[in-house]
């Protein structure tokens, strides 16, 4: 059973226990994953899990609840699109924010990714500011209603 | 230089055929009837798996037909492309006869055997007749009765 | 905000990964080139090349190495096209890719030295653009049967399907093995670990995630289906995937059976030509022959029509020439159709070397198989029937004929025995097959003793003895040749069913040779068997319109003027009167039973006839052996067959028989 996303920040003003947001970073390049994490360190309360392939990502998603996925589209074995399609096919994961990352020059992927259920889309190279802003948006309470 | 011959009996007369031409000799009980054949065709037998027509030599020689006995034999002779079984009263012996011993048949024998005998010879104290196999099996095209 | 992250700090990491990707890309390119040399495709290597370059492109973009981005982008485009074309890549493309990899490598090394990489070489980029415009070579896919769930199959690309199919064609197995991740797994395997383990024993074509119902074993509701290509055994594969081999499923069918590469020496020298093949049902070929027969009949009518034209004075020279040509064409057509039913003896015996290897595997004997069949061919029906006989003789030779290694050495023979099978055309209509071994030969005395008969003098007599049911030449019954066919059945098949001949030559201590003489083609029909006049007959069911019980109330006697006092009989049926003939009467046989029998309704031209027989026995397929000798060639008899009792049974042509009856009646009138 895929557990629905949880852990969005509590309503403003309330005494809050900052829950850690679980972020799954999916990219077959370790360097790439490290770069993404480095970019996102500025955001508080994030806990990162690595997945080096789409398969590993699906495996981890099936066994643990996450709040955000950063997903590279270009991966061996099972590409980002297949991961997207499979994840969105699961009832409980429909609301999970997924930030899709792809290489410059692959513009057709953008539309396709968004159709396939990506919540947001970034092209490499991106600057740290850009990805940070996207993640903040995706993890904000308002974003919780975006499917 | 003697040549081996197979000796068989039909109605007390003794006939020979070169052993080299004889494929097989078997006892005889029945032949598969084939309708529409000449009267002297007894039918078909299967010997060593080969299906062979049988000529009742008695009938061929215009002698009265007899029921097969324990002594009855089919002598299967192969000459050229044709292999035919001759149904005879008995066939037990082989004899050695030098070719020089064969002479043309005397008038009496010829008439009786209607040209089925090629030559005669003396083996020991008996007269044996060398059959003309091709004449016996006949070459005329068959027609239904 | 924290201090800006400088991504260029990741350069070292980038260099490391780029190096890795370049190494694997080079290896894959080599694999592609090797396949190209064999005129094959390598979809897997192409796909991996594509991914590698795509990754390099992304990475270099992130760290800002523009030249590498450009080169890798150009390469990636070409590779994507090749991937979509099931891995088809031209030599030009492979060449360019090699140059591209080299260019990237140069720049990566420059970076490593702290230098600035050169811009991407224009000529190279242009060349890639040109290639992209031209398109890589295209070709069709092969027709292979892939069995993948429809839902999953849609996720496969053409290239991936091609990979599975090519593997099947090459004799490897294309399989699916499933892995279900779970924290509760005793082996603690994750999908990554499984991929690595399976990757060591197989080529992984694709891994597809599948939703499954949640359970204790699958708390995640997820299972991965791994589609792989391998020569490994199920047990090994299952172990790698952390599952037992019962879950392994084959997903591709071989398009044709590859003959096992056994050690056979082909002394005939010729190789089977690699033509394209079609699978045809034998019945379709028979249909074709029937159509041909009716063409022949039509041609006869044409010949007669031409003749009557000629008789009325018309100049028919041109017509005659044409009709003559059609005659030749029909003869050739018949020969061509008959040829389609022929199978080569070589293909028939392909399994023999492997079978022999299996028989001698755990024994103290070695046997070499030599097949000298040349281009000899047999009709398929003959081939099917003679094969079990041949295999039995092979088993006999291996099990009883060939001595053990030590025995042979002691006898001064080579350690390995030889079984030689040769083929030669005996006549236009018959083929000789000989099976020759250099083993111990047959022991006449032993056979005589076992058969309780006098010692046979000739090889022919010896053959008769061993072909007696129940006589076995073995001292003990072995699992392979003790049961199953006996020598008697071999003889029944070769001589009885096929109308061929079997002979034997043997010399103690030297060896044994069996010679099978078989017809090149045979006629087989479905036939009714029945009794009449105390004899058994068969007739093709195609000619029988109906079989009816004869109700004496429906039999009408008609006095015949010239019948010599005998009445003719008619059978009243459906308002019509059919001439009714007792077959026994026709044949001059005495009826063996009284009481009403059955009538076979035959149609000849426009008239129906009824033939009364005493008892219907059954229906079976029979081999019709034509009666060749003029003494027994009669109208109404197509040939003889063996119903299993060793006695010839006549095959009746009742339609032709109707013809003789009518002409007889006309003659009497």
Mind sketching the topology for me?
The complex is a heterotrimer of chains A (147), B (145) and C (669).
Chain A: E1 21-26, H1 30-40, E2 46-51, H2 54-63, E3 68-72, H3 80-88, E4 98-103, H4 107-116, E5 120-124, H5 128-139
Parallel strand pairs in A: 1-2, 1-3, 3-4, 4-5
Helix pairs in contact in A: 1-5, 2-3
Chain B: E1 3-10, E2 13-18, E3 22-27, E4 41-47, E5 50-56, H1 57-60, E6 73-79, E7 82-88, E8 90-97, H2 107-113, E9 117-123, E10 126-131, H3 133-137
Parallel strand pairs in B: 2-10, 5-7
Antiparallel strand pairs in B: 1-2, 1-8, 3-6, 4-5, 6-7, 9-10
Chain C: H1 11-37, H2 43-63, H3 66-84, H4 91-112, H5 122-134, E1 145-146, H6 150-153, H7 158-169, E2 173-179, H8 191-201, E3 203-211, E4 222-230, H9 234-240, E5 249-250, E6 252-253, E7 264-266, H10 282-311, H11 317-340, E8 342-344, H12 345-348, H13 351-360, E9 367-372, E10 377-379, H14 380-401, H15 405-410, E11 417-425, E12 430-437, H16 444-451, H17 459-466, H18 487-497, E13 501-507, E14 511-519, E15 523-532, E16 535-540, E17 544-549, E18 555-559, E19 567-573, E20 576-582, H19 583-587, E21 598-604, E22 607-613, E23 615-624, E24 637-642, E25 648-652, H20 654-668
Parallel strand pairs in C: 7-9, 9-11, 16-25, 20-22
Antiparallel strand pairs in C: 1-6, 2-4, 2-5, 3-4, 8-10, 11-12, 12-14, 13-14, 15-16, 15-23, 17-21, 18-19, 19-20, 21-22, 24-25
Helix pairs in contact in C: 1-2, 1-4, 2-3, 3-4, 3-5, 4-5, 10-11, 13-14, 14-18
H/E element string of chain B? EEEEEHEEEHEEH
Give average pLDDT of chain B, whole number.
86
Level-2 CATH architecture of the domain at 21-73 and 80-127 in chain A: 3-Layer(aba) Sandwich
As a whole number of angstroms, the C-alpha radius of gyration of chain A is: 14 Å
**What is the percent of helical residues of chain A?**
25-40%
> What's the number of helices of chain A?
5
Order of strands across the widest beta sheet of chain A?
A: 2-1-3-4-5
The appropriate CATH architecture of chain B is Beta Barrel
Q: Count of helices of chain B? A: 3
| SS strand fraction of chain B | over 45%
First-residue to last-residue Cα separation of chain B: 46 Å
**In terms of structural class, how would the helical and strand content of chain B be classed?**
mainly beta
Distance between the termini of chain A: 18 Å
| Poorly predicted ranges of chain B | 141-145
Mean of all residue-level pLDDT scores of chain A: 77
